[in-house]
Amino acid sequence: MKIAGAVLGTAFLAFIVWSGTAYLTGQDYSGELIAFEVVSDTSAQAHLSVRKDTDTVVVCTLRSLSEAGREVGRKDVGFAERQGSVDKVVELRTTGRATAVELVGCQDAAAG
């Protein structure tokens, strides 16, 4: 029961943050890095969630960082699905062992 409450509370809080950010920035889309996992010395996986209009194509940029804070990988991920909410798990190839993955940002692909 506690776990279910925590999950629902977190989802509600994420929705509030997303809607507030979308309202303040005037953007019709937002992206969030849900989780990441370092798979090997040359690979990491990231779970992304994007909320957007169904006719908007969004591109989000991820980067992976080494323990020293250097960038060891970067990837642009497109979200062209005709859905308002899309989750994807993507793989980032790295030039060294990553210790973190971060979402650099998302933009409307049509805005370039």
Word description of this protein:
By secondary structure, the protein is an alpha+beta fold. Helices cover 21% and strands 51% of the residues. Strands 1-2-5 form a three-stranded antiparallel beta sheet. The protein has a three-stranded antiparallel beta sheet with strand order 4-3-6, with no helix packed on it. A hairpin with a 2-residue loop joins strand 1 and strand 2. It is globular. It starts with a helix and ends with a strand.
Task: Quickly describe the structure.
The chain has 112 residues and is an alpha+beta fold.
Which descriptors apply to this entry?
3-stranded antiparallel β-sheet, 51% strand, 1 helix, alpha+beta
How does the SSE layout of this entry go?
Blueprint: H1 2-25, E1 29-40, E2 43-52, E3 58-65, E4 71-79, E5 85-93, E6 100-108
Antiparallel strand pairs: 1-2, 2-5, 3-4, 3-6
Biggest sheet strand order reads: 1-2-5
Query: What is the helix fraction of residues, given as a range?
Result: 10-25%
From the alpha carbons, calculate the radius of gyration and give it in angstroms.
15 Å
The helix/strand class is alpha+beta
Unreliable runs: none
Mean residue pLDDT: 87
Beta-strand content estimate: over 45%
